[in-house]
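ok so for the tutorial part 2 we go from a plain amino acid sequence to predicted structure tokens. step 1 is just haveing the sequence, like this:
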Amino acid sequence: MRLRRGRAGLAGLLMVTVLTTTATGCGTLVLRDQGPLPPRSSGPPLPVDVVVSDLTSALQAEGVTLERMPQKLITVECHEYVRGEHKAATADAGLKAGFARARSDHGWVSEPGDGKNGQLLIRKGNWTATARLSGDGAPGTAGSATASVLVVLGCDGALSKSRSRTDSPAPSPVPSP
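step 2 — the prediction. this is what the tokens look like for a chain of 177 residues:
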């Protein structure tokens, strides 16, 4: 019986100590704000037109033709979408080969997770490109001659666009020279 009371007393003392430490701020050294994370790219921001041109030309060389989506349809600034249709049987192979060409010929580098879970990830400067492989039997491709291909480009620090009352699109954050 005494052993139980001793444990209950010890647990109560421990609880009071933890609450006091949190209330007085003595434990804040462990949770101190270290400031913002360092930037993922060390160079100057790349213009969006250069990035889109690099990637679309690498994919074009592998037979995957994509076109840029209009800015007024994109709700996040510093994001670009390039899309198109490709033969369903060779869409995944074309995307993989196009991303490999972007790495070898245009200076893109693989990101962690590249190729895992059917997702391709590459990075150049302050931009990351992602594409999801359709895989065999993906919804919408079974029995279809073509498959939709979408590559999403996003830059570091992307935010939602603020729309004016006239709903005009916001300008690209890094215009081409």
